[in-house]
């Protein structure tokens, strides 16, 4: 039974790994076919490697049965037509064995005199199976498994000749004397002609592979003419008289048969034969003698066909001509390998003759050319890119061949008229766009048409077809328009293919050999446009294409007729291929290029018209940042500043109420760039003295909150980005001392309060920082009492809403107003929300409270600076609450581990608060130890962002100087283990990398740390190692096990005791129903006191303790399982700790209803059973008791572990025995129930041990433990009772 079960497991594993679900069935049927072939010819099956385990005893099958088997095999393969890759793991075995059998048959039965191979219907079935495999998986995938033996070349070629002769003789019908069995095979699998064609196809591929065998064919030539032996009709090849066939050879026969099938093969047979001829002519032993003759045959045949008119060619001749061209292509593709100086001149002559013959076939009249050009011009507007490209290539090639300048001019004019279709003119200030191509509105055009037209012009420029100066002057303006082509389609911007093609067109223009001096002005405009595109296009491939075109122009500026781009080399050094690929570098590069007067205005206007209005907010922000940097760089240029304030600023102000959200947002971002620096506004004031309009523009900016329609601020689409940019502008205006922002503050306040009501955390967080900055800037002009009360009321609301979450963040401004009572009131509220005692606050509110606590003292007011001691106490108080309540928040819901938001916010807040200490950190040993230990736990988190931020906090803690020597000593111990060059933090820890993070952190266990530190770090490792994420679990467990294995025995016991203590604390937590009666009022409790005993000082079990149990217990059990799997528990002195761990595992499983916990505990029982005999007795009884568990999975799992224990007992305890004593009740017990005459009071007697264990094993294996308990009858009771007897009978002989 065990062997049978292992076979089933192997088969099931094979199916799961390969994806070939019918593998077992397939190989069983195929094995019968293979063995029948072997038995039919008395071959040795070991020669073919038939070691398949799917079928053990194959009986002799009739031919009819083999036919049905083959048909079923083909049906199985047909199921994988859609997903043939699922066969890949088995494809080698599927191909090799039938091919070896076919090869054996061909090589052993090659006829000597009579040109007839013996008939074997099974070989025909093998060929049919091989053909079907090739059809399903593809011949290219299986050809690599074909044999390449030298001795197989001539037999395979003879079998091909025999197959071809059979096709000729029978004409596709089985006319020769055949058995009814052979006829039935062809009737079953299709016509014989089709079968022979398939066999021919396979053999041709095989011979094409054999053509690569690196051995001179003369060494293996039997000097027998295969063509004459099989009387093949190859007169069409030999009658020409080019080949000298008086002395036939293997090479010549091989080449003639290949050429014959290349001439007359149909479909894939012709292609395969052409490939075979190509492989043959590149062999040196064939090309030396027959390459010129082969090309001469092709020349002769093509001239013979080309002399006739197209209408005179018969259908056969048309097929022949097509076959000749296919064969010629394959020969020419490899002919370069075979060319030698000896016959190079002859080859050139043959190739010239071939080209002349081919040109005759395309001699058409001008009317047909016009029709072709007209059709191709229509196709350059096709929706399919491949069609457009093909049409462009066709037009350019026709123009090259015809060589008519008039036709080229007509084509260019047609393309330019296509550009002009559906174009309009934008209403843009002429100061921003003074050229007509800058004002072209392409919103109604087709991007496919523009793309095809750009490609067509680019190809004509590249091939030098455009020669007229007037044509160039017409083309370049449309090129400039195409470089900025972009239209809205639905919710997306399209046109990047047009811009990319335009860059290619510019590149071709740079490479063209015409004199560009007369286009100097247009080329300078092209330089400015290319710089704008290479910096600000949203697609990286377009930016790089523009950079390549610019580089091409610069590189050719010194050539004859070249035009020099302004500052070309300098621009390329700033914006090279790699720089333009990174958008984050663009603002800096744009500011440096703008220092060149030639590009400054063009870059500014381009930003103001295109990228700043992109629907992608990321591009908008890059454009706005670039505009700010350019303004700062050019702030001393009065002419330039006058231009931007008189033209660009009013243009942006006029668009703030545009119907399109991207334009509204972009205009606000553009306005913000004017007020980013204080020096800029000073220049504004100076300019406004001479221009009163500027003062009006500034007033319009200050009144923007009332100018913008309210619906745009409160709407769903685009309102978040609009408010974000508007508040950012308000922040710039408020901090500028030259602007009276206080007079319009009330108008802007409503925008900020509206932002805090938006359901967008990132927006609320950003606005809160700007809000706090504004409050510190104009704190004396703000009526804060009423404002703070309103925000406080919303933040303390019991109703969860985005407004409450935003109001909590808005409270970060409280500290700016220097009111101690208000600050104390707000701090108490924030701490209450963080504590979240009654779970009344959402996780979003708790997270925002943690963020606000960190920002509360990030900027100190004047009152705080007077009492540093009190300020430090308040900061430490916030740190205590953040560590205790924020670091330990593991709340989860349908979104996952949402508590990680709070933990991350708490870490950042602690970093912010610690960074505000100017001198030594006034922290006691207790709090410092708690802070470091919790930080280490978070460094071992599952999430990489948590690990990274916790690592930053740890580095800060280790670098801070404290007023306590014990703190410094703890920092030294940990820092020395983590960083080799401490106090320098080198080498740094890459916390993003799981392997490096856990490996480096595990070194901390080797230091003599505080127990709390080791325990917290161990908690982090337990959570990571016991996680379901395989990569994290493997990294954490491997790092801990490595440290554990290298540790001294006493240190191992210390680490195990930590595990035991952690396990014991988790098991001591009371159920939630009892714990709720003992909750302490935390709001009046000092968090530091609770932290002393690691939250163990409370007499009752809090909700936090229960959450901790649910979160930690299962990972802890999995961690123990991993330690058992790596056998790290087996060391001297481990018996006592393992006994305690065993006790804790039993407590974890006792009355548990958690399925995952029970499954892990059962697995641990099996591992404990192999630790010692004492534990084995208890464990198997515990497992047996689970056979009556109400959950079927638990019963099945217990049965599997019991069977494993009984099977492996002797291997683990060879010196021990399982003595089974039972009474007649157990002796007569069966699956059908107890015997009627069974007497349980009978005296115990010895029962055969093997019989009892076998009986129990059979019950465990054969019983379906997934059935309901009533259906199991007495099986559970029988096994439980017998297991208890076995446990009592285990004897230790030691």
From TrEMBL:
PANTHER family: BETA-TUBULIN COFACTOR D, TUBULIN-SPECIFIC CHAPERONE D. Residues 945-1059 form the Tubulin-folding cofactor D C-terminal domain. It comes from Furculomyces boomerangus. One of its GO terms (molecular function) is GTPase activator activity. GO terms for biological process: microtubule cytoskeleton organization; post-chaperonin tubulin folding pathway; tubulin complex assembly. Gene3D superfamilies: Leucine-rich Repeat Variant (1.25.10.10). Pfam families: ARM_TBCD, ARM_TBCD_2nd, TFCD_C. This is Uncharacterized protein. Residues 357-425, 445-569 form the Tubulin-folding cofactor D ARM repeats domain. SUPFAM superfamilies: ARM repeat. Coiled coil: none annotated. Keywords: Chaperone. It comes from the Eukaryota.
